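Consider a typical record:
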Amino acid sequence: MYHLHGLSFREFLQIQQIVSWPAVSLPDLLKGHTELALDLTQGIKPLMHWNDYLQYGYYPYFLENKDVYVQKLTETIHLSLGLNLPAVYGISYASVDKLKQLLVVLAESVPMKPNISKLGETLNTSRAGRGVYALSGRAGNFDVVGLEVGYGDKIPLWMFGLLY
């Protein structure tokens, strides 16, 4: 089985030949994010590229053709679910179908706190037959999404894409 690693925001920018930044360790990011952001944003405005990364930059399919990114990603997901899970983990094909339905429900409901009873009703499964996938209990502070340079303990979200 092949494992395809996703690209970090830093790697995405480098592959696109926009900028080449070194990886940053988490302790360095936490300690000096403001100075680092001030230095890095002198050359480019990372937020100008952030939405592109979120839309099609995580997997390198965009290198082939950005217009077929979603199609390629969907094919990969179907292949992994339909072939790899049953072959490697012995999961039944009926369970794979339920997992596909679960993924569709979750994808259409983001952001959400899953209602296990409602999921079971939608997927037509009993509560005992369901796995509980807990998303973070607390929404968190999302005022860091649009920041280019942070302050205090507010670190811009894009900067976590420098870690690898």
